[in-house]
Every structure is written in structure tokens, then in C-alpha cells.
Design brief:
The protein is α+β, with helices and mostly antiparallel strands. The chain is built from 12 helices and 10 strands. It folds into 3 domains: 110 residues, Acyl-CoA dehydrogenase/oxidase, N-terminal domain (Butyryl-Coa Dehydrogenase, subunit A, domain 1), CATH 1.10.540.10; 109 residues, Beta Barrel (Butyryl-CoA Dehydrogenase, subunit A, domain 2), CATH 2.40.110; 145 residues, Butyryl-CoA Dehydrogenase, subunit A, domain 3 (Up-down Bundle), CATH 1.20.140. The chain is globular, with a radius of gyration of 21 Å. The protein binds coenzyme a persulfide.
């Protein structure tokens, strides 16, 4: 038997996150969209409430949750606002390389102070010429005795302006592509590390995304994660988890848009009756509901594969591309149901639609995620 009923503990976690999102996130979501800002106070409160660092083990200052429980919490936070929830959740991605590639000593050294203080980190893989083709990155790490010297530039790095430490991927030899990529932890304040242009984005306006410049940054050897050349696999494994996380963000956003559209369709009267009773819109609402439910089930399935410690690259990629495609469709339909009002900034659905688009692009475009899923199907 497959039991999809949540345990009491899971329902309590869900309620904690739902109450937090309703009280601390949703009321300020439109304001943070209009005037993008770092939601530092909200992050502090989320940390105090136990809603950060969800999948990081307790011994390293995290919540020690599996990916299914993390998905439950993440969905609720994202109903409030995807951008603010993204800043609360960034450590799951940013600290993934330390959890996957780091030694026990490194996990204690980097994660405990970061997590105990409620600070945030960044994941530095992408470069101008290495987006979908992450294996072609050009940031170089030169070995120099007891340290490495990193030189290059990262772009589209979430939380770059505020991170306390950065997981940075660099190559020891660009001609060896994925085989020479190596992962490092670079603390904020390291001489030569600076934050460049901050992106002015269509949606997810308060999700800080910026360049990171590495201008001959000396990184001690003890900050290397795993062996030389293991960095690409560390990055890919981190992204497996990240993609389940993005899928649950997309489920939260889709749910918010669906709920808004449903309520509006019940209230808005045209031709003498609520517009939701017209079959055209009624079918649209039914399709939205089933899409949200299907996205959630795929997300939980991918999370449960991870929690059973089975290889879950395909399930994570599938959940990511399905759920984020659903988010774009459901938020667009929500605007349609609101009609002209939905296209104005007076209603949240306009923001939902803009916020959704980025989800099809980050943590691997949905085309790349189809490559990942298709590759596994073909025995890769
Ligand atoms: N777990 C463990 N190992 C993995 C893995 C995973 N999820 N994915 C790939 N690998 C391994 C492969 O098995 C291969 O190992 P060997 O060298 O031992 O054979 C190695 O990594 C290289 O993999 P592959 O040949 O598939 O690499 P490609 O250069 O073809 O790239 C894609 C594969 C396109 C899937 C990868 O570049 C990618 O995910 N790109 C998108 C990056 C992304 O999501 N960026 C967003 C950053 S955060 S906003």
C-alpha cells in the first residue's frame, strides 16, 4: 500500500511553514516585488522558527529533514512569495557541495558557524560561456603549494551580494572539461573576491542574483571539497537535490495562483452568474487543480527516492521540469481568469506569472532537465 497521508509530525511542520508564510511573507510580497530588497529580517525569523537549512543534518546546525519533509515546508513558504522563500532556502543549494564533497571536519568548520548564526551562502557554478554547458567553465584554479589561486568570473549567482561563503567550481585544466573541475569553499572577504553587477530581473525581484569576480583569490588547500577533478560530480549531485527543491517551490507558487483564481472565479459575476460556473473557465480550473496535484506527487516521489538513498537524478529532473512548466501554465491561466484586472499590478497574479518564468530557466533549463531525464532513460 502507498500511504500518502502525512504523519502528525509532517502536518505540524506544514502548519509551522504555512503560518509563517501567511504572517511574515505574504503580507510583504508585493512590496518586496515593487522595491526589491534583502529580506534579512524575514530570514532571521525563518531561522529562529527552524525553517532554514532543512536538509542539513542537525549535527551541522541544520534541521535534519529528509527531502519529502523539506518539500512540504518549501511548498508552504513559496505560497507566500517565491523570491523571499528563495532567499530563505538558498543554503540548501549553496551548502550542498559541502555536504556532498566535504569531510566531517569541513562540514563542522563551514556549516556550524554559518547555520548557527542564520547566515546565507551562494552556489557558484555558472559563467557567461558556461550555462547549460557547465562542464566548459573557465574559472581557473592554479595549484600553488599550500593553496590554490582562483581566477575568473561567475554570473547569475543567487544571493551573491549577501553570502557569507561561496561554493565555487573552478578547473585545473579547461581542456579536460568535467574531469578537471574542482570544488572550493571561498569565504566572503577573501582578498580578490568581489561582487559585480546585480541583475535587474522580470520576476522574483527580491531574489538577489549577481556576478562574482575572482581576481587571483588565494584559497587554502583545506578549503577544497573532495579530490581534484571531483567538482563536476559534486555539482551535479547538488543539483539533483536542488531540482526537487525547485519543483516544490513551483508547486507552492502554482497553488497560490490556483487559489487566487478559484476565489476570483467564485466571486466575479458576469452574465448574472459567477464566471467559474461557465464551462470554459470551470474546465480551466479543473485542469489547473490536476496539474498542481500531479506536480506535487512527482515532487514527493523524487524526494522519497532521495530519502531512500536511491539514485534519483531522473526523478528530480522530471519533477523540476514538470512542476515548473505547470507553474508557468497555471499562473498564466490565473491571469486569464482575472481578465484585465489580472494584468494590473493591483493583483498578485501578475507577479505570480512573472515569478514563474524564471523557474523554467534556473537550476538547469527545462531543456537541460529533459536531457538529464532522457539520458537516464537511455541508460546514462
Ligand atoms: N550524479 C553523479 N554523477 C553525475 C551526475 C549526477 N547527477 N550527472 C552527471 N554525472 C557524471 C557523469 O556520470 C559523468 O561521469 P564520468 O565522467 O565518470 O563518466 C560526468 O558527471 C560528466 O557527465 P556528463 O558527461 O553527462 O556531462 P555533460 O558535460 O554532458 O553535461 C549536463 C551534462 C548538461 C546534464 C550538465 O552540464 C548540466 O546539468 N548542466 C546544467 C547546469 C545547471 O543546472 N546549472 C544551473 C546552476 S544553478 S542556477
Amino acid at each position: 500500500m502507498i500511504d500518502l497521508n502525512l504523519s502528525e509530525e509532517q502536518r505540524a511542520l506544514q502548519k509551522l511553514a504555512r503560518d509563517f508564510a501567511q504572517k511574515e511573507i505574504a503580507p510583504v510580497a508585493l512590496q518586496y516585488d515593487k522595491e526589491p530588497a534583502f529580506p534579512g529580517e524575514i530570514i532571521k525569523k525563518a531561522h529562529a522558527a527552524g525553517l532554514m537549512n532543512l536538509s542539513c543534518p542537525k549535527e551541522y546546525g541544520g534541521q535534519g529533514q529528509g527531502l519529502v519533509n523539506a518539500a512540504l515546508i518549501t511548498e508552504e513558504l513559496n505560497v507566500g512569495c517565491v523570491a523571499i522563500a528563495g532567499m530563505i532556502g538558498i543554503n540548501s543549494l549553496a551548502c550542498g557541495p559541502i555536504l556532498i564533497g566535504g569531510s566531517d571536519e569541513q562540514k563542522r568548520r563551514f556549516l556550524i558557524p554559518l547555520n548557527d548564526a542564520g547566515k546565507t551562502a551562494s552556489f557558484g557554478l555558472t559563467e557567461r560561456e558556461a550555462g547549460s554547458d557547465a562542464g566548459s567553465l573557465k574559472t581557473v584554479a592554479r595549484s600553488a603549494g599550500d593553496h590554490y589561486v582562483l581566477r575568473g568570473q561567475k554570473c547569475f549567482i543567487t544571493n551573491a551580494s549577501h553570502a557569507d561563503l561561496y561554493s565555487i567550481f573552478a578547473t585545473l585544466d579547461p581542456s579536460k572539461r568535467t574531469k578537471a573541475i574542482t570544488a572550493f569553499v571561498v569565504p566572503r572577504g577573501s582578498p580578490g573576491l568581489s561582487v559585480g553587477k546585480v541583475e535587474d530581473k522580470m520576476g522574483q525581484r527580491s531574489l538577489n542574483v549577481a556576478e562574482v569576480n575572482l581576481d587571483d583569490v588565494e584559497v587554502p588547500r583545506e578549503n577544497r571539497l573532495g579530490e581534484e577533478g571531483e567538482g563536476f560530480k559534486i555539482a551535479m549531485k547538488t543539483l539533483d537535490e536542488g531540482r526537487v527543491n525547485i519543483a516544490s517551490c513551483a508547486v507552492g507558487l502554482s497553488r497560490a495562483a490556483f487559489q487566487a483564481a478559484l476565489e476570483y472565479a467564485k466571486e466575479r459575476v458576469q452574465f448574472g452568474k459567477p464566471i467559474g460556473t461557465f464551462q470554459a473557465l470551470n474546465f480551466m480550473l479543473a485542469d489547473m487543480a490536476v496539474a498542481v496535484d500531479a506536480a506535487r506527487l512527482l515532487t514527493w516521489y523524487a524526494g522519497s527516492m532521495a530519502d531512500q538513498e536511491r539514485r534519483y537524478s531522473r526523478e528530480a529532473a522530471q519533477a523540476k521540469f514538470f512542476a515548473t512548466d505547470v507553474a508557468v501554465r497555471v499562473t498564466t491561466d490565473a491571469v486569464q481568469i482575472y481578465g484585465g484586472y489580472g494584468y494590473t499590478k493591483d493583483y498578485a497574479v501578475e507577479k505570480y506569472m512573472r515569478d514563474a518564468k524564471l523557474m523554467q530557466i534556473y537550476e538547469g533549463t527545462n531543456q537541460v532537465n529533459r536531457i538529464v531525464a532522457g539520458g537516464v532513460l537511455m541508460g546514462g
